[in-house]
Amino acid sequence: MQNAGFKVDTEKCTGCGLCLDVCPGNMVGGKVLRLEGGHPVMVDQTKFGWQGCWRCQHCLAICPVGAVSVLGESAESVSPAPDKSISEELPKLVKYRRTCRDFKKEDVDGKTINAILDAVAAVPTGGNNQRLEFTAVCSRDAMRKIYEAEFGKSRQMSLFDDSSDDLSALRLYDAPHLFIAHKAVGDRFKDGDLVEINMATAYFELLANSFGLGTVVSTYSAELLSKNKEVMELLHIPEDHRFMTVVGFGHPEYKYARGISKKRKTYKIY
Fold this sequence. Notes:
Helix content is 31%, strand content 14%. By secondary structure, it is α+β, with helices and mostly antiparallel strands. The protein folds into 2 domains: 7-69, 2-Layer Sandwich (Alpha-Beta Plaits), CATH 3.30.70.20; 86-250, NADH Oxidase, CATH 3.40.109.10. Helix 5 (110-120) packs antiparallel against helix 7 (190-210). The protein is globular and about 65 Å long. Mean pLDDT is 89; it is low at 156-160.
């Protein structure tokens, strides 16, 4: 039996049943949560999965009084709801972010990188399968090893040569850090697996910009790196894992004063 560690503080719980209503396992015909004595209980599960506990923590997130604990997490240990100003600020960020092609030659501090990685871990996956993995290159020294493994130590590359204007080596434009979302891609859910990888990449790129960092997303770099066995080993990416894009990131050399507006063909159906 897989134990989700579902607990309820009966002194706080009002018996509202919201956790039962939003439980995905309940929605697809499982009997995961039920009210017993006016409080929710989790039925013993043979495994995490489709008609069992999805490990999604919906029950914890929905509880209005913070009475639920699950998977070792409680209302006190997880993130609160965002401020209402996010509805104004997030659209501004989407319009403001630019592809960065000029980075400062300094490392981003580890606290900032960890905060971004902690947030991107919450990216949605199909059925909450949670099989996505992330690789982050967190220093210029580590990036040097990636470049040398790809191109050889004898070649001068723009990342480590201030006088060079050659930005074509890896198409990351001197970014001192690298993020890659990757996953073992199966035949049955191949398209869904690839969507998850790209969604995680998009989440990371936007989160990095929210911390004031510059980013460049590259499919060309992903293709180059994925074909080099030595590089893949340095990145701790298994042979059966795939990725379609990578994100170079770091402190931007230039700050933009405002966002921009783009016009796209849009169909509104009422």
